[in-house]
Write a structure and sequence with these properties.
The complex is a heterodimer of chains A (355) and B (424). With 355 residues, chain A is of the alpha+beta class. Chain A is built from 13 helices and 11 strands. In chain A, the strands form 2 sheets. Chain A has a 7-stranded antiparallel β-sheet with strand order 4-3-2-1-7-6-5. In chain A, strand 2 and strand 3 form a beta hairpin. Chain A is rod-shaped and about 105 Å long. With 424 residues, chain B is of the alpha+beta class. Chain B contains 15 helices and 12 strands. In chain B, the strands form 2 sheets. In chain B, strands 2-3-4-5-6-7-8 form a 7-stranded antiparallel β-sheet. The chains are: A alpha+beta (355), B alpha+beta (424). The interface between A and B is large, with 54 and 59 residues.
Chain lengths: 355, 424
């Protein structure tokens, strides 16, 4: 026998009733109310700790049971069996396990799910779209951070000559070179979606020096090394894969935290940030070594440029950051350290010389 | 706008007329009221205050929340519709007024269908909008025409599935009212994106596209008017005495103070850096090189501080609008009062922010419960006798039945995803 509040669903009126437990169900008794309700004519809603229990009847009316002791005896009488989810919710250990499960889902999704899915999607994207996106991006970069090249026409022509020589015959997209003055970026090269390789004046100057040397012989081989690496990115569609990957992560995080970003806002950041994964850099390096070998160029030239680039970064003060902090950044960014790549090129070059 | 103001004018009359009608009924109903001490109600009835209470706890909600989140994640979002029902049931059933609790009856299947549509729409908006000009224009029109309908459907779904004392609530706002209210909102929100696609690479023009946002105080007031004018419980229809200009002063003062503050900080920083440059260009360079590693932690602190200040402004605005909206809302014979205190609410929000950051988000369910309880704590309902007034309210025919039309849920969860405030 317990206290209950009865609502008939015709009137917003609280009837105080006494609820009796009976063999086949329950009975309600109050002023003007005398009901017998069969066990299969009632349904108990999921009980919450301090909220009143809600007992629904088949005709739409319901009872609310407030007192803690009354709730317990009602549950006992009805033989209420909580669902799996309710039992999960009730136990602290099980609920905390959910955190570990979620961390696992996050980690495996990020580590394996997203890259595989991104690669699948990237192969489905038509080349024409990739090229349109590439020209969109270079237009955007020209507006915000790139300036027309200040190099003389002959040097640029020599660089274009080099990339023509390296272009593979079976390339899925024509490859062409853009040279730009980029004081904000410094000596660098990057590959855009759709077959465009961009090198900066600063990179060419780094290779040829300020004395006005021509892009020939060893110096030409050094630039060829950089170009071959970028062509490696293009042949493996790294830019597009990376873009789709970033897009997927953004969509996933956006759906979770409710903030979205559009592809165009994202693309320049993704490319200028050159955040290729370690695997992608290694893949592009492997391609570069093979392409250079085909043209009779030793990978040691590429090692020389990389060294020059990392030294110029040091001089510009980017390395004034304390070492421990740099290590944290390097660890978080998962880029292959330049030293590691330089060592690889030197080793391959040494092996080739021995043969 | 015509429709909106017309409706706002019409409600107070109805509000004045109804209590007179209900008084004879009340006397008849007194006999039916059992065991309450309302029988000694005098003729010139003083208003009694009724305080809603909340019996939920952060600890209990945490476990519901984490299981909901885990299952939503594991099912790639499919479970989120069921999670939403569980969450709303938890909050509604733990909310009590005068000895009776609220309840939520939404069908998760319908919410799920709505979510699928919402995800498709969001995908279109974020990824196809920049694809081509014709596509952008057609999507613009579709959204403009669709959003008011969805907002109204969302309000209807939410209220029709909310019950108290065994009777369902309703939303009474008209479709034309929804268009009058939400069409200008949609225009203001979508215009910058559309112009960005139609006239690309012209940041100057894009800046002008944000000017209509200055009308936000009026738009916001009109949204609140539409919502608070359309609430129905049984035969009791709400009326709202807000006007289009009700929020202007709050927005103006808070917006101006934040602007002045940002300018002061900006000038301070400019003077700080300029002083180096005046001394010697090298000093500046050396300073930047030596302390560049400090930029990350210092930047983090600055962002946190800026957020605390931004929060002080936005919380004040929230408190003002919340109080104004509810104080302006009444049902025939029922006054609603909200006295949410600013300072205490701000401390609560700051505490919630820091603990949520510190626990990587795990404090969030506690924060949600805290805010919900705090808001409810300062709301009161005033009526001569709530029992007698409610006892005269009868269910409308067919109201108690299942309300599960497709369009309703589609609207509800779309609006949920678009992040409009339907949390009241």
């Amino acid at each position: 026998m317990i206290q209950a509040h009865y609502f008939d669903h015709r009137q917003a009126l609280l009837h105080k009733v006494i609820l009796h437990f009976q063999v086949g169900g329950i009975s309600l008794a109050g002023e003007g109310i005398d009901r017998q309700i069969d066990k299969n004519q009632l349904q108990l809603e999921e009980p919450f700790q301090d909220a009143p229990c809600i007992l629904n009847f088949a005709d739409g009316s319901h009872c609310e049971i407030h007192a803690q002791a009354d709730k317990q005896s009602l549950l006992a009488h009805l033989g209420y069996t909580p669902s799996t989810i309710e039992r999960w919710q009730h136990k602290w250990q099980a609920a905390l396990l959910a955190i570990i499960v979620m961390a696992g889902i996050f980690f495996s999704g990020y580590k394996w799910g997203v890259p595989v899915l991104a690669d699948k999607i990237a192969t489905l994207i038509p080349v024409s779209y990739e090229r349109a996106l590439g020209s969109e991006i270079i237009n955007f970069l020209d507006q915000v951070m790139l300036k027309p090249s200040g190099l003389d026409d002959r040097t640029i022509a020599q660089a274009e000559q080099l990339i023509r020589r390296l272009q593979p015959k079976d390339s899925y997209v024509p490859i062409h070179l853009e040279v730009r003055n980029a004081p904000g970026i410094g000596a660098n090269a990057f590959a855009l979606p759709g077959g465009t390789v961009v090198i900066t004046d600063q990179l060419v100057t780094l290779i040829v020096g300020n004395s006005g040397n021509e892009l020939t012989n060893a110096l030409a081989d050094e630039l060829s090394g950089v170009l071959a690496h970028e062509i490696g990115h293009i042949q493996n569609r790294h830019a597009m894969r990376r873009l789709v990957h970033k897009g997927l992560v953004t969509v996933a995080l956006g759906s979770l935290f409710g903030d979205f970003n559009s592809v165009v806002a994202l693309a320049p950041v993704a490319l200028v940030g050159q955040e290729y994964s370690r695997e992608m850099e290694i893949e592009a390096d492997t391609y570069a070594i093979a392409a250079l070998a085909k043209n009779g160029i030793s990978p040691k030239h590429l090692a020389n440029v990389l060294e020059g680039m990392s030294n110029s970064r040091k001089r510009s003060g980017a390395e004034a950051t304390p070492k421990w902090l740099r290590n944290i950044y390097a660890y978080a960014s998962s880029h292959p350290a330049s030293d590691e790549r330089i060592a690889r090129f030197r080793q391959v070059a040494a092996e080739m010389e021995r043969k | 706008m015509q429709i909106q103001t017309g409706a706002a004018d019409a409600w107070p009359h109805a509000a004045d007329a109804l209590p007179v009608k209900t008084i004879p009924d009340q006397e008849a109903a007194t006999a039916a009221v059992i065991g309450t001490d309302a029988s000694a109600a005098p003729v010139a009835e003083p208003l009694t205050e009724y305080h809603p209470s909340f019996t939920g706890t952060g600890k209990e909600y945490f476990r519901i929340w984490i299981v909901n989140l885990c299952l939503s994640l594991a099912t790639l979002g499919i479970y989120s519709a069921w999670a939403k029902v569980r969450r709303l049931k938890y909050f509604d059933r733990n909310t009590q007024l005068n000895g009776a609790s609220f309840n939520f009856h939404g069908d998760p299947n319908i919410i799920f269908r709505g979510r699928v549509i919402a995800v498709l729409l969001l995908f279109c908006y974020h990824y196809l909008f920049t694809f081509s000009k014709t596509l952008a224009l057609s999507l613009f029109v579709i959204f403009l025409l669709g959003v008011p309908w969805m907002m109204r459907s969302a309000l209807r779904f939410r209220l029709r599935n909310t019950s108290y004392m065994g009777l369902r609530c309703q939303f009474h706002g008209t479709l034309s009212g929804a268009y009058a209210t939400y069409l200008p909102v949609g225009l203001v929100v979508l215009l910058p994106g559309l112009l960005g696609v139609l006239i690309p690479h012209k940041p100057g023009i894009l800046a002008f596209a944000f000017i209509p946002y200055l009308s936000w105080p009026w738009l916001h007031a009109r949204m609140r008017m539409y919502q608070h004018n359309g609430l129905v419980f049984a035969a009791l229809k709400s009326s709202c005495s807000l006007t289009k200009g009700s929020f202007f002063l709050s927005y103006f003062i808070i917006g101006l103070s934040l602007l002045i503050f940002v300018m002061v900080i900006g000038m301070g920083a400019a003077i700080f850096f300029a002083s180096f440059k005046n001394h010697a260009a090298d000093n500046y360079k050396i300073f930047m090189e030596t302390y560049s590693w400090l930029l990350v932690p210092v930047g983090f602190l600055v962002v946190l501080l800026a957020y605390a200040i931004f929060l002080s402004g936005s919380t004040l605005l929230q408190v003002k609008i919340w109080n104004k909206s509810w104080n302006a809302t009444r049902f025939p014979g029922v006054e609603i009062e909200s006295q949410l205190p600013y300072k205490a609410f701000y401390y609560l929000q700051m505490k919630n922010l820091f603990l949520t950051l510190l626990t990587l988000g795990l404090y969030r369910p506690f924060a949600v419960v805290n805010v919900y309880r705090f808001r409810l704590q300062y709301v009161s309902v005033k009526a001569a006798s709530l029992e007698q007034l409610l006892a005269t309210q009868h269910a409308e025919t067919g109201q108690a039945g299942k309300s599960g039309q497709f369009g309703q849920a589609s609207g509800d969860s779309s609006a949920d995803l678009f992040g409009f405030d339907l949390s009241w």
